[in-house]
Amino acid sequence: MADTITDKKLSRRQFVGTAAAGAAALGAVAGATTLIPRVAASPTVGGVKAAKDTITVPRAGPVPIPSSWDYTADVVVVGYGGAGAASAITAAENGASVIILDKASAPGGNTSCASGHLQWASNAIGAAEYVLTAGLGTLTTAQALAIGTQLTNVGTFLTNHNVTLAPGNPTSSTASGGFPGAQYYNWNASVASHDGYPAGTGKDFFQYLAAAVNKQSGIQVMLSTPAQHLIQDPASRTVVGVQANSSGQIINVKANKGVIMALGGYEGNRDMISAFNDDNPVAIYPAGTPYNTGDGIEMVTEVGAKLWHMQGFEYGYYGFKPSVFPSAFWLQPGGAGTMYAYIIVNSAGNRFHAESTSWGHIKTKPEPQLPNSAGTGIAGIWPNYPFYMIFDNTILTQGPVGMTQRSTTTGPTVGWNFSFLHGDYTWSKDNSVEVANGWIVQGKDLPTLAAALNINAAGLQAQVTNWNSMCAAGADTQLGRTASTMKPIINPPYCGIQMCMTMINTQGGGKRNERNQILDTMDNPIPHLYGAGEFGSYYGFWYSGSNLGSGVADGLTSGADAAAQAPWSS
Ligand SMILES: Cc1cc2nc3c(=O)[nH]c(=O)nc-3n(C[C@H](O)[C@H](O)[C@H](O)COP(=O)(O)OP(=O)(O)OC[C@H]3O[C@@H](n4cnc5c(N)ncnc54)[C@H](O)[C@@H]3O)c2cc1C
């Protein structure tokens, strides 16, 4: 099996400057992306000369212990996102030499793409009760206690490593879900921004962590070095190293004391989305890093690990996936602070979903019936695919349709494509570039827009007429959406985008015990093998808290435990 990632970096200038080059290149990029928006198959997109960074990870069987090693450390951390950073710092502070491997050419992973909400706990026993009950039977009491304890140490870790919180943070609130102990999983925070905003995002959070990694002696970072296999001593089953790919060369990295798998989830692996989540792999794209392709799942199963929480899957907001980017943009027509200033229709032109019922951070996949208060909605999301976001010129001119700003108070870059580390795409303030690209399709009237999007024209016209009447009356009698979000579609040119679903992150990976050791199929620890972060997260069924905070808590446990191991000797 091979995992192939194509990371294309391109600038706004490149889009505009190469607009005429046309459809020839579209075929080249189309192979890397299954969803080619029908509307966006425009010549303006195809001409982009995107820089390519293609990594192929071949899969084979278990790897024998090599006769010589290319690199050696006490602890090898696979994945340099937030959990990997916290693991590496903690292991190094406990006296271990550390090598961090990351597949991407820049660190940060999903952590650097996140909105930046952090959560930790004020009371270890209370938080333990919460995670135990919210784990719905998948956690042991000892494990919940260990997690609860580390959740109370997150704030101290942040302070000790100069992770500066935004003014007024943390604030106290209660984790949602109604499980006992939720009130103790209660410290919420954003970090300070590096861009002059009152609060920062995951990008800022990762910058603080990366500075702490750089400051810490004994940590070596190797980028563009995808781990491919774990190396296991067949006699003791101890994991003794990692086989990775460095510039096309296979390298063997020895880990005397432990390997920490902090390499994220399977957001970028379409087979795994289908297999583990039983969902539509065609129209769901990561909003975050495309490099999290479930490699760890294959690596740990090769050494006999048990998997858990594979169906833990966080859906994101409504998105758009251009063929020239590996991840999806989140959409927010109407600009920062304006939500749901549009309707969503299917190819028949009909609404089928109360748009203000966001798909963000839900546990229920879109496939099931979505009830609406009027009881008249067309059931199901996927039967209505492909679907389109429709709005008018008034909304278009209110700000960038791509969610470059999560709100007016937080920093501008959320998601992979906007990230300073990766895509670096700047959505034009007036959307003119995205209109020119064909990402946003316009029509001087509704039939013209319908024709361009391949929507039934009569259906769209009837739907918009009905919608505008409901806006005037101040009530969505069709699908019961929140009245305050209703904006009429009356001002041409009319606009439409073919949407996709997005995902934030997955939670599945190797099953862990209270020391974050990864377990085998008999629930025995595989010696020297650890998990951290969203790879095998303790969030299984109920997500409340934060993956950023839990990644730090995991790093504290995995880093310290690995550093304390007796070195493996052959
Ligand atoms: C748009 C968005 C918004 C979010 N908002 C929030 C939020 O507000 N609060 C919150 O708590 N969570 C949020 N999340 C989720 C959160 O960001 C992630 O779950 C969390 O950052 C995961 O951290 P991690 O260190 O486990 O993984 P990551 O940060 O994803 O790091 C994993 C790293 O592993 C690397 N890797 C993958 N495969 C290999 C391999 N074979 N070899 C070597 N390296 C490999 C990747 O390149 C990556 O750098 C958000 C996510 C997204 C995408």
What does this structure look like?
This protein is an alpha+beta fold. It has two domains: 71-312 and 507-563, FAD/NAD(P)-binding domain; 314-505, Flavocytochrome C3, Chain A, domain 1. The chain contains 15 helices and 24 strands. It has helices at residues 12-17, 24-30, 43-46, 82-93, 124-134, 141-151, 154-160, 202-215, 270-277, 295-302, 393-396, 432-437, 446-453, 457-473, 547-563, and strands at residues 2-6, 54-58, 71-78, 98-101, 118-120, 171-172, 187-189, 219-222, 227-232, 239-246, 249-261, 284-286, 307-308, 313-315, 319-320, 329-330, 343-345, 388-391, 441-443, 494-498, 501-506, 509-510, 517-519, 525-531. Strands 3, 4, 8, 9, 10, 11, 23 and 24 form an eight-stranded mixed beta sheet that branches. The chain has a four-stranded antiparallel beta sheet with strand order 17-18-20-19. The chain has a three-stranded antiparallel beta sheet with strand order 5-7-6. α4 packs parallel to α15 (547-563) and α13 (446-453) packs across α14 (457-473). It starts with a strand and ends in a 7-residue tail after the last helix. Flavin-adenine dinucleotide (FAD) binds next to α4, β21 and α15. Residues 78-84, 101-104, 107-111, 113-117, 202, 226-227, 262-264, 287-289, 291-292, 295, 414-415, 504-505, 533-535, 546-548, 551 line the site of flavin-adenine dinucleotide.
Q: What order do the helices and strands come in, and which of them pair?
A:
Layout lengths: L1 E5 L5 H6 L6 H7 L12 H4 L7 E5 L12 E8 L3 H12 L4 E4 L16 E3 L3 H11 L6 H11 L2 H7 L10 E2 L14 E3 L12 H14 L3 E4 L4 E6 L6 E8 L2 E13 L8 H8 L6 E3 L8 H8 L4 E2 L4 E3 L3 E2 L8 E2 L12 E3 L42 E4 L1 H4 L35 H6 L3 E3 L2 H8 L3 H17 L20 E5 L2 E6 L2 E2 L6 E3 L5 E7 L15 H17 L7
Parallel strand pairs: 3-4, 3-11, 4-8, 11-24, 12-21
Antiparallel strand pairs: 1-2, 5-7, 6-7, 9-10, 10-11, 13-22, 14-21, 15-16, 17-18, 18-20, 19-20, 23-24
This protein binds flavin-adenine dinucleotide.
